[in-house]
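Homework-ish question, so no full write-ups if that breaks the rules, but can someone show me the predicted structure for this set?
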Amino acid sequence: MSDYMELAKKRQSCRTYKDQKVEHEKLVKCIEAARLTPSACNSQPWSFVVVESPDLVSEVAKTTMHLGINEYIGQAKAFFVVVEERAELMPKIACMIDSQYFAKGDLGAVTLSLCLEAESQGLGTCIVGLFDRPKLRQLLNIPESNGIFLVVAVGYPSGDKVRDKHRKPIDSIVRYM
Ligand SMILES: Cc1cc2nc3c(=O)[nH]c(=O)nc-3n(C[C@H](O)[C@H](O)[C@H](O)COP(=O)(O)O)c2cc1C
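A: Not a homework solution, just the prediction itself:
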């Protein structure tokens, strides 16, 4: 059994990557792990585009750099694009709550699953929320009916130093009763 705490401490946004291709099998395994993520009514409101062919990787990278930020993304060797699918909750729940109510949470969870599986395979990732959505949509032929939730940059980290995590103090985020 692997130690989740160890994985959670090691995972960090990776912004410098080695010039080393990521094996297709490793990317597939990330998708397999993400597929197991829980979701409301098991509605699984997600699909993925895995970008690994070098020409397309550099085109996707450009869509994340258009604001003059995310320059480091040019070093990434692959991308997961997390696409929003329509959530269908069970009818007896959907009559009480909008079917899309939990979808964003589900999509966030599936994104972290991708990152943690990648981490467990020695890969680095960085979740990227700021990118040129219309351009990426056009590039990857993603229909207008689907949102593009997030992009995840992937590659082998160029170093192995784990940075200090800056998080709110634990006492400020929890109450035990
Ligand atoms: C929804 C979301 C969007 C993000 N967008 C970006 C981004 O566009 N560029 C970037 O460099 N990091 C981005 N990040 C990474 C966060 O800055 C990072 O997760 C946070 O600072 C905590 O650092 P850590 O991931 O190293 O623990 C994003 C993270 C999330 C969850």
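Now go work out the reasoning yourself. Hint: DSSP finds six helices and four strands in the chain.
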